[in-house]
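ingest -> validate -> predict -> emit
validate: passed (alphabet ok, no gaps, 124 aa)
predict: started
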Amino acid sequence: VQLQASGGGLVQPGGSLRLSCSASGFTFSTYAMTWARQRPGKKLEWVSAINGGGQTFLYADAVKGRFTISRDNSKNTLYLQMNNLKPDDTAVYYCGRGWVSSSSPIDWEDLSSWGTGTQVTVSS
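emit:
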């Protein structure tokens, strides 16, 4: 299983970024996928999850209405469109295989596979 997140960068408040997570080594369409983030000095935090078919998704309250999760199973790729970014969104973002949804900090052990992270910095 390999997961590779990309698309992070430096953006001003109110700006947008689209993160991608390229998957390989498993049948992508049969797995739910999750985005999580780790802000500086904070524990791992759940952001969003989507089922294998892409029809069911959930968002953390902190990102609801601003972030959109999606997937292209033909490309084995997961996405996170992030709009109206805030300084508090600054974090390393990770994609994981499986479904997690929690208002509390999550553990790395909650999913069996995580990708490399991509840094998102929101600053003027």
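The chain is about 0% helix and 45% strand.
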